[in-house]
Design brief:
The chain is mostly helical and about 140 residues long. The protein has six helices and two strands. It has two domains: about 35 residues, no CATH class; about 100 residues, no CATH class. It binds zinc ion. Zinc ion binds next to loops.
Length: about 140
Amino acid sequence: MTKSEPVKMQSEGLPCYCGKTGCMETLCSLTALLTDKESLEYFFENVRKREPSFLKRWQIFLSHLANAINLLHLVYDTDFILGGYLAPYLREEALAFLHEKIRQATPFPESADFLMISKMPEYNISIGAALPYIQAFLNTITN
Ligand SMILES: [Zn+2]
């Protein structure tokens, strides 16, 4: 894998906007989870009602997400925080499902706590990117 190649999870699969197939984007993004006309709220309303077709799609999505997390965790060996628009909908049941799938897939024993759900799901990337600058500023006024 070169620096410019997207993370490929499957040799075949749905076409990605990058022009290739089997990318993580086609398996683990919101566009992979939702149909064109669905909202996250509508989707999870049906998951909470235990609608079989929605539960099946959710489990397939979580299985792909677990594979992606496992691959990335094997490479980076660090904690993972799941954020973004999906984070508010990730409950203990989903986290347990992810842990179980990762445990089945990984060649190494895993502690159960390397995977967390963001406490700041909206705008987390921009807030996270700003933290070093805020910390540096705070250091200048406190020192
Ligand atoms: Zn792609």
